[in-house]
Amino acid sequence: MSDVQRQVETYINDSRPQYEEMLGQAVEIPSISMDPRHAPDVHRMAELAAQYLRAAGAEAHIVETPGYPVVSGGWTVDPGYPTVTVYNHMDVQPAQEPEWKQSPFAFQNDNGIYRGRGATDDKGPALAALFGARYAIDQGVPINVRFLWELEEENGSPSFASAIKSRAAIPRPDSVVISDTIWLSKNQPAMPYGLRGLLGARLVLRTGTKDAHSGVTGGAARNPLVELMDIVHACVDAKTGKVKIPGFYDEVVPPTKAEIASFLKSGFQVSKFKQAYGFRTLRTEDPAEVMRRIWAAPTFEVHGLTGGYHGPGVKTIVPGHSELKISMRLVPSQTPEKVFTLLRTYVAKLNPAVKVEREGMLHPFRGAFEGPYVEAVKRAVQAGFGKQPAFIREGGSIGAVVTMQKAWKVPILFMGLSLPEHGYHAPNEYFDWGQASGGIKAFSHYFSELAKMARG
Fold first, then answer.
1. β-pairing, 175-178 with 83-89?
2. Could you tell me the CATH number of the domain that includes residue 391?
3. pLDDT, tens digit, for every residue of 413-441?
4. Where are the alpha helices (DSSP H) in 164-286?
5. Cis status, amide bond into 211, omega within 30 of 0
6. Enclosing domain of residue 328
7. 25: number of Cβ within 10 Å
């Protein structure tokens, strides 16, 4: 081990108690952006995030928006140095699942296993990037590192675009790196270069003013639950997942042969994928087809159907109303605006009484598949974790990415730290010191790589 390697290892080990204390404080704030009851907690998280930046020696601003604020800060050492913006989010998903084995907002540190909502999505990776940046700045690396910590990502980033218009508080960088994605497995780092978009919607049908006795009215009464299920059947094939909305696939750009080859080189294993997410069976067991479906193909998903009786036993009523919650993941070059129009037009043809309400939309993203920034990410991950990453696409959506791409037109790279078993959006979420410490090393190395690129 060289002196440089020993120095960064010493820094990381010495930083561990502080990292764990900061992550614990952050996890115990239930910053649930989609629940208005937690608005005070979201603002409290913004204050704590700004405090973390200042404690690290950076400057920080809380940038107000029409919704929740964005925390902006960092080190501008020299205007002549390259500037990289690190994006993460500090809001979290709700945690109402009955499978939680502990209180989701009571942080637990089990010898380097950090349990609690937000530990891996995305507070743990955000702090790892901060510690990596502080080390690079302390070592005199000729680079400016800025941070953007959003507090509405889990709610679709409705106010992020207005925030980055504040050029004084959020200057345009030369590149962006995002740490909010998941590896393929603990043994295979994976860095995406593309994200799927998202369109959410509610289909609402009211056929009566109240529930009615099925023995008295059944057969004559319309059943809104049945009618909405009929619409689902018309929209998607339940066995294959193929979307049947006319025109849905018209704008889809399929992955290239080179991209599929890269997917196959990633080491993706169907068995591990099933194990990580608790699946008994899949629609297909072919690895290439599974990867294409989860990273590069659009979807139609049903998330919930409400109306009628949900208590124990069977209550024999015909519901007076029903609501279906759906979403569609989108890929380049689909747009959520056009897909929503296709959905609404098709549903109106199937059942004019059904109202289609849009519930947020995010555009898909496709970034660099090769080039100097991609090579810098490879070297940084190699330095942090001892293995080069696979370059894949990500099946999820991050609304802020497309916003930054449109506003700044700079390279946007990903350097996620989370593992499938960490439980993104799931009960018993956790992060771990192995990923955090490797992330600190990888980010500090990445900033050095960017500085070298600038010097030529």
1. parallel
2. 3.40.630.10
3. 999 999 989 998 999 999 999 999 999 99
4. 214-217, 224-235, 257-265, 270-277
5. no
6. 197-252+298-362
7. 15
